[in-house]
Amino acid sequence: MAKCAICEKAVWFGNNVSHSHRRSNHMWKANVKSVRVKTSEGGSKKMYVCTNCLRSGRVERA
């Protein structure tokens, strides 16, 4: 699974807990998109970025 190149948000694990309190494994995935990003040299580079970083303006799209 992809990881955000900016904040390094990735997959995390835990338990689903039912009403009867039985537990089963669960995996949550970060909302990561493949995006073309402007680099400091003026070019563009394709990287995986989470939508939280895109919304907050930490990354500028090419």
UniProtKB/TrEMBL annotation:
Protein keywords: Ribonucleoprotein, Ribosomal protein
GO molecular function, one term: structural constituent of ribosome
One Gene Ontology term from the biological process aspect of the record: translation
GO CC terms in record: ribonucleoprotein complex; ribosome
Record keyword Ribosomal protein present: yes
Lineage top rank: taxon: Bacteria
4Fe-4S found in the keyword field: no
Family designation: Belongs to the bacterial ribosomal protein bL28 family.
Protein name: Large ribosomal subunit protein bL28
UniProt organism field: Eubacterium cellulosolvens (strain ATCC 43171 / JCM 9499 / 6) (Cillobacterium cellulosolvens)
Lineage: Bacteria, Bacillati, Bacillota, Clostridia, Eubacteriales
Gene name of the record: rpmB
